[in-house]
Amino acid sequence: MDQPAAEKSKEYIRPLPGNWWMKKKAYSLFMLRELTCVFVGGYALYLLILVARATDQAAFNAMVNSPGIIVLHVIALPMVIYHSITWINLTPKVLIIWRGEERVSSTLIAAVHHAGWIVLSIVIFVIVRAIAGT
Amino acid sequence: MAKSNEPIWWSLFSAGGVVAAFFLPITMILTGFAVPAELISENGLYDLLHHWLTRVYLFLMISLPLFHWAHRFRFAVADLGLKDKSGMLPVAVYLAAIVGTILALVFLIRL
Amino acid sequence: MAASDTETDKTVTLEVFRFQPEENDEEHHFDRYEVPYHEDWVVLDALNHIKDEIDGTLSYRWSCRMGVCGSCGMMVNGEAKLTCAAFLRDYYPEPIRVEPLDYFPVIRDLVINMDGFMEKLGEVKAWLIPKEERDVSQGEYRQSPAELAHYKQYSMCINCMLCYSACPVFAHNPDFVGPAAIALAQRYNLDSRDGAADERAEVVFSEEGIWGCTFVGECSKVCPKNVDPAGAIQQAKVTATMDWYRNIVPFGTRKSTETESQ
Predict the structure, then answer these.
(1) Do C241 and B7 touch (CB under 8 A)?
(2) What is the ipTM of this complex?
């Protein structure tokens, strides 16, 4: 009762558009989140240059007071904050803590980290202001 | 398929992500706005920068975020659909992060 | 098999993706069907109505119609859904576009080629490989509720593949092992009875496995069973990383991945 093998029909492959990430809000936000790394890296580069210039007080002052540098900070700060918020929100997915049969709540883990971030920022600001304040 | 050596880059990326998330915003405010806003003096900031503790802090704030950028950027490029036929993109970004780390070490030591 | 036999004047339009290789194997088109609108109908009911009453040539997969078999996954207005769980009332009166699951080759109409996924299930060894051989006379494996809790969420996967249709990494690279297969590998890696985490690591801890994932997170959003494959993958990354560091430390404890995953 052998039947000849059926010829396999051609399949239809749908092309992936280059702007796939613009099609859905979730994808666009994902891409934005990923590209915050450019601002994170950019700021690290700025710090590197600042440190390189910090052998000479005049050069250092010029950099710290430069309007162009301030503008870059204005652009980069919201991006870096977006990194912080999204990173901390994802932390519960990576930091899994078991208490018997239950997992510690994701909301709690994220909330604790957010609180920690804000407290840490205030503490650093207060310390630096105390040491270097006008 | 074989067990990958990604963990080294992923752990550096993760460390950089944590450091960036917790410390970058306030550091940015301090270096970008605090002096022009006259909350701290530029002399004060300059002196603070030379303290050994600050130098250790700055080393971590330069090196780890650079590795964070390198790893994430390399995958973001792939996610955008841009193909890296030569396979040089990972090499380029990690090398840049390594060079940045070494430079940071040099600059901070001689400060 | 109408879900309700009450008369209705209301109708809703379905725009259905058609690909019929026996007629034209180069192009697809959309057919529009006017189907009766019922409050309690799902998209699957509408498709069955089309097949039974309007156009018997339409091809699609379905089975349990209650969200446990994973057969009826399709794109409904651009979102990956189980058509047995997508109610017409959530779209009415707008037309509803039904397409095959994204990023899979289309065999015909709404039927996609899932061979790749089936192969991946084999590659990750998505079955229990016990730590030690047990004879029937030794009795059953014992597992505490806490041990069960560690992997239970990942055991809920119904292989519906909606997660693959939400994954940009898979869209770019069909060789990416993908959310469901990795979540299922983790289901066994985290099972206290299992001893094969090291065996699975070749595939799961490879570039095409967990390291291809960029944590977009859409897979977990579309999962109808709340498996959270994104979480499973990130957990696996942590395990793989700790395992990697342990193995490069000379004279360090060469613990295998399985003890780490307990």
Answers:
(1) yes
(2) 0.94
